[in-house]
Each structure stands twice: as C-alpha cells, then as structure tokens.
Amino acid sequence: MHTAFFPSGKSVSEDLNKASSIPRYIAVEGPIGVGKTSLAKRLARSFNYEILLEQSEENPFLERFYHNPRQMALATQLFFLFQRAQQIQDLRQDDMFEPVRVADFLMEKDRLFARQNLDKDEFSLYEKVFEHLTIDAPQPDLVIYLQAPVEILVERIQKRGIEAEQLIEQQYLEKLIDAYTEFFHYYDDSTLLVVNSSEIDLVNNDKDYEQLLDFILTTRKGSRNYFNPKPSLL
Questions:
Q1: Per-residue CA distances from 58 to 39, 55, 80, 84, 209 (Å)
Q2: Among 90, 94, 95, 104, which one carries the catalytic annotation?
Q3: Which CATH superfamily is 12-227 part of?
Q4: Tens digit of pLDDT for each residue in 58-74?
Q5: Can 95 be counted among the known catalytic residues?
C-alpha cells in the first residue's frame, strides 16, 4: 500500500476522506522550462508514488536539434516517439500491479511538438509511423498544466543552465506556449488543473506547494480547474 505524506509529515492515509480523493495517476505538463519535472518529483515524494520521467538526455539528436532545428527535427521527433511508445508499453505491462505514479509528460505532447517542429512532408511521415505503433496510453486521473509567460520560461531555462537549452529561441517558446494553450483549451480526456506558475515557487516554497496539494485534494473528478494564487512569502 502506498502512503502519501504532506510536507508537514502528516500521512494523508490518516484521513480517509483525503486519501480516497488522491489521483492514482498524475501527469504534469507544460512548455520547456515551466517546471514540470521538478513538480513531478516533489509530488511523487509527497504521495510516495512511482515516477515516470521524460528521458530527454537519452536522445542523441536533441542537442543537434537546438543547433540546427530544420535539419534535425525529424530524427529528434522520431526518437522521442519510439522512446515514449516503449515507456507506455512498459507501463501497460506493470498495470497488473495497479501502480500509482506521477509523470512529467502526456503521450499526446509528442504530436504537439511534432506539429511545431516538422514540415508538411515530415509530419506526414511521422503520422504514418505513429499509426503503425501500438500506443494505448493509460489516461491520467489528473493532468496538471503549468503555465508561465515566455519571459519566465527564458529566465528559468537560463537559471537551470543546461548548455544546449541556451540555444532555444524566444520565438520557438512562444510557439510552444500557443500550441499548449490551444491543446488544453479543448482537452477533456482527464480531470484538468491549470496552474499559473508565474509568481509562485512550487519547488522551494512549502506554502505555495501545500496550497496546491490542498487544491488537488478538493478537485472534482472530470472537472476543469484553475489554480492562480497570490505568491506566498518565505
């Protein structure tokens, strides 16, 4: 049995009402630099869940993509497609054990990025490959969509200091923000929580994080929700 813990140390399982409301599969999404992986890791620690992360460092084409997007887009995208398909297959094999987990991506994000990065002919090829893969991705119980303006994304990318990411252009980030906004405007496959992360720190500020946890536990299944708190002082 998985027992969840809040930052205060109190076990969520001590409160049966709260425990029953905890989503068993949470996916955190949003554009590059918004803080998906950091939040996913903290949620996994709080809920004592397994964590499923993008393995972008394993993509041998990614750094070259940042240097030359036009030339390396197809190879980069296909690698991610095969990688995520394998991760989903591994998930399906584990489902017999009814795992609980937090992920820092949705399978649907692969096509979102493909539309942004590939030209018409490349995207047509990508779609044919996608159709021939057996991808039956489990749907999360809750999707957390982190939002932030492009200036915040640029600042966070610079702060985390991954060398290849410093080549990402602001115009590319703006396109991603627009793509994510459109995608989640129509998204209704899971309970959705849209979080304005511009002025809060969900990783280093316990008050901000605990506010989000409380909000998650009161979120109704199948609903669309918005979390836009005022920043807390440390």
A1: 21, 6, 9, 12, 30
A2: 104
A3: P-loop containing nucleotide triphosphate hydrolases (3.40.50.300)
A4: 999 999 999 999 999 99
A5: no
